[in-house]
Amino acid sequence: MRVSTGRFAPSTTGPLHLGSLVAALGSWLFARAKGGRWLVRMEDLDAPRIVPGAADEILRTLERYGLTWDGEIVFQSERFAHYDAALEILREKGMVFACACSRADLARAASAPGRGDPPPAGVYPGTCHRGLPPGKETRAVRRFDPRAIPRSHKPAESSADRGSSAGAARSS
After folding, report:
1. How much of the chain is in helix, strand and coil states, percent to nearest 5?
2. Among 26, 42, 79, 118, which lies 20 to 30 A Cα-Cα from 67?
3. What pLDDT, in 10s, does the model give residues 78-129?
4. What distance in Å separates the CA atoms of residue 36 and residue 155, rounded to the nearest whole number?
5. How far apart are the C-alpha atoms of 143 and 128, rounded to whole Å?
6. What is the largest CA-CA distance in the chain?
7. Which residue ranges form the domains of the chain, and what is each CATH number?
8. pTM of the model
9. Is residue 146 within 8 Å of 157, Cβ to Cβ?
10. How far, in Å, CA of 48 to CA of 10, rounded?
11. Cβ neighbours of residue 95 under 8 Å, at least 6 residues apart?
């Protein structure tokens, strides 16, 4: 039998605001109503925006409202080895590829004239799926999904070839 699990992942950019407290309460109630567990993971990867002491303040606020968690608090910044291992498995399976595109690059590509029917906003246009353009460095690792790449851009190489162009481990 599976145990129901509620999760809450606040950002450590300041005190807990009302909307986040409502979200925490909802996931806590879901877990407790099912006799399940409630886990807290701190989203502490955006270093320039982290407010010192915010994580402790958030936890004290949760406790003040009676929202108790199960197990240890997980800090994402302490889990890079886990993420790197999972990413390596995806690379080995040819399920991800390196991408040099910024969000602005992707927005421009989606609205570029003369490319037939551009993908809808937010859909990756297939720019780097065959490998990084010359002189470009990896900015992100994207999941390979043939349904998300325009037909005219689908790679001819095998999934093993796609995995070999994966480049750096983490997006910035």
Report:
1. 40, 15, 50
2. 79
3. 999 999 999 999 999 989 999 998 888 877 776 665 555 655 666 677 788 8
4. 45
5. 11
6. 58
7. 5-78 (3.40.50.620), 80-164 (no CATH)
8. 0.65
9. no
10. 16
11. 143, 144, 159, 163
